Structures are given as structure tokens and as C-alpha cells.
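ingest -> fold -> write
write: protein_1
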Amino acid sequence: MFLEEIQFNHQPGFSGDAMAMTLNRDTPVETPEWQRGRPAQPVAYVGEAVNGGVLTIRVRFSDGPAGQRVRVRALDADPQTDLDASQGCAALVTNLIVGAARALAGNALGSVAPNEVTFNEFGISFLQTFTLSGHFIRRGVPFTKRETRWRWQYEEGGRWVDIGESRHTVYVLPFAPVAPWNTLTTPRVDALDLAWEWAGGSRTRDEIAQRITRNVNRLPRVSYDPMTMFGGNGSEPFQLTSWLTAMRSGRPFQMNCTDCANAVTSLSNLLGCTLSCGRMNGTINTHTFLPIGGAAAVDSDWIAFNERVFLAWDYHEICWLDDFTSDRVWDATLRLDGDPSEDGRLAIDPVNMPWASRYWPLLVEVPRTRINERLVARRAVI
């Protein structure tokens, strides 16, 4: 008997099903995600949507007994073995540690409960629905990327006989993606991989946005330029593919405030945050700040855009919680000087920072700054 295919996203639109995704800008993750003789494609689930409920897959087999029914199952090929609690506190502590590790790594999908499979006269089965048993996908789960290995077996003469093994890369998101994802853009695996590098293990939206903001700000080989490098002005889409290519090229590149706001909003909202890019047009006279790519200990890296020195900004774009009605902001373009004295500088990250009482007074000379227009957007990603 051969395992032929496994479908994870087999109920499109059902919140407890695997998410529809693309590998990148151009290549969709197709169903079935696993086919014999082909590379397996990744799958993703949303912990908040599944919340420990029933998960199912659809599976097809070949070279089975013609016209007969056979019970089939799949075991976790990397099972967790608990120590006997009667062995004392050491065993209990070990079980707790192993359980905690299991929540962050290893098989998220559990095992595949036994079910009967019907074969036609040619020994080929119909697609059969199987239920997953003991999965770890529920509300409160951290953002993780895991590997599931299933050992498939069929029952014959009262014993279980191995068929083969399947391997699956599984992303578990704590929250469902928010616009622009699922509305303007299908969630992308290349973006999920970067989000995993930066925010893996995060459980809350605040932690996700904070870690992504800081990682954008600390990107190596990046310097600040007032002009946008990756689109996203007005209603233009954010050129995520070009930005990812620049990041991984190993060569220096530049970003401005629009690029940073788009990057933070796109990656954070992919994991369920509700950030928006908020653009302020006007005359913005700044205090001294440390731009992206700057070193806090190098005095010459601290700059200002101010009519007293040269030119003011004519706009600045940052991330807002929801929209301009909130008072919480994130800005990966810069770090603020948190030391009001002239004697030193204290570089602080604007992450989940109160706008009115903290961010804006530290960034600008308020009496000499005029905002004429505010625009908010969650731009499409290409």
C-alpha cells in the first residue's frame, strides 16, 4: 500500500482549517500539500480560530486490497514519553519541562486517528477524511514553526503494518492575519519565515509588533534616506519581494519612513496585529534622533531635520495601533533621544509608545511643527 496525497486546506473558508497561502509573490501553496514523490508544501493554522477544536485532513492511498476496506492510522514519529510520576519530583519536573518544550517545538498536529479506507476495484482509495488527535493548536499558543512526522500504518490480521512516513512544516499563528492579508494579499510563506526569525515564540500582539519593529530598525547594512525605496506612497503597494531580496543580498541598501512603516505593518499584521501606516504631511522640525542604521555611540550618526539647520521634513510615516484615533505608535525608522540634557544621549525605541505624551514631544519641536493632513493605510503587498 502507498500513501498518495494529504490535503490540509480542504475546507476553504472554514476557520479551523489550514490557511490558504502562497510561497512567495507568484507561487501558490497548492492542495494537496503532500504528494508522493514531490516536495511537501508548508501548512499553517491559527491557534485562536482552532482553539483545540476538531482538525481534519483528507488522505488518498493506492495499491490497496481491491474492493475492500482497511483501517489506517498515523502515529507521531517523534512521540513524547512521560516519565512515571511515581519516580518522584524529578520525573514531574522533567515532564513539565518536556511539555513546555513541546508547546514551542516538535509535532503540533499530534497523530492521525484510525479510520476505515475503502479501495475500488483497482486498489485506489477515495479521499478519506481523518481526524487529528492530540494536536497543540489552541488559543494562547505562541507563534511557532514546527515539523510534524507521521508514521502511517494499516491494520492487517490484528497487527499494524507500516506504510511509510510523511513530513510536514507547520506554522502555528496565535491570531488570524489582518489586512492587507486575506483581503488585498494572500498570506505568504516567505514573509512568515522572516516573521518567524524575528518574532518566533511571541504570544501577544504587543510582543509581536515590538520585536518586529526592533528587528527592522537593527537591520544590518541599512542606512536612512528620505526617499522611499520600496514603493508604498499613497495607495501604491509595498514591494515586499524587492525588500526581502535587498535584505538577503548581503549588499547595503536604504530605507525611509514609509519603507519601515510598511515593513512593520505587513509583518506584524500577518501575525494578527492591527497596525496601520499613518502618514503626517506638513512641516516637521525634529529634535536630534538616531536614524535606522545608526550607532548610538557615534555622535555623528545622530541627525535632525530642522529649518534651523537645513530643511524640515515635509512628511513622516509611522505605525499606529488601528488608526489615528489611538494613542499608541511604533516607529522603526529611528530611535529617539530619551535624555533631555545636552550632556549625553539615550537611544530609545518607539515601540507601543504613547503618541501625545511621549513620542511626539521627543521627536519634534512642537511649536514649530505644523501637520496639514493625515493619511492612514494598510497597503497591498507585492
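write: protein_2
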Amino acid sequence: MKAFLFEISLFLIFLFALLPPSTRAETWAINPDHSEVRFAIEFLGLSDVHGSLSDMQGNLEWDKQTLRNIKFTIPLKTVYTANKMRDQHLCSSVFFDCQQFPLAQIEINSIIVPDSLKKPNSWFEIQGQLTLKNVCKKFKGLA
């Protein structure tokens, strides 16, 4: 079985090498005008605080079948929670410290597509790394 899988893998590698450039992975720039990161954080176990970060810069690789290697940065000063005092507090040195660490970096390296994208409200499971204040942590989430 392992030999069979190895042969299939080699065949796919050679096939990929012979494909014309138009079917290989392409790099696309993320459009900051149409992209944002949304979040919800539990507040005192009573409710959720919803917010967003915008003005993303980055790119993704797309090979006509699979979305892969998404990398982007977000200016933390763009945090918006519909409460100006809370947004200022999040930008302070207590949380994001936007003066010293102005950017969050996100790299998504695994995207799991649900069994059926035909279901309403289908989500992709994503895994990657988030860097805040020069500290990198792995995460899982939905997109």
C-alpha cells in the first residue's frame, strides 16, 4: 500500500511539473477594501463582544482547486467594536500596544472544506499561526 501511494505521489509530482503555468498555483493579492477579520469574545460569561479589524494587506495562493498559504498583516489600530472607549483600551499597552506593535500577522496553512458546500452557512475550518507583540501562537478557527 505504501509503495502504491508513493508511486501515485511521484506521478502527481511529475504531472504537476508538466502542467502549463496557467494551471499551477497563482498568487493573488488580498483586496483590503473587501476584506476584514471578524471576532467574537466572551464577556463575563454573559454575552459576546463582536468586533472587526480591517485594512488587511497580504496574499494567497490558489491552484484552481485549493486555496492555500494565506498570509496577511492587519494594522491593529483598525480594531472596531462599536465602543470607542473599548477600542482605545484595546489599542493601549494593556492589550495590543499599537504604538510599539502596530501589526498583527496571520498565516493560514490548512483549510478544511466541509463535506457539502451546498448547505447554507457552511464554514471552512482553518489552522494557522497568529503573531501579536512578536509572539507567535497556533490557532484553529472557522472562516
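write: annotation protein_2
The longest strand covers residues 103-112.
The beta strands are 26-29, 37-43, 47-53, 57-62, 67-75, 103-112, 125-132, 135-142.
pipeline exit 0
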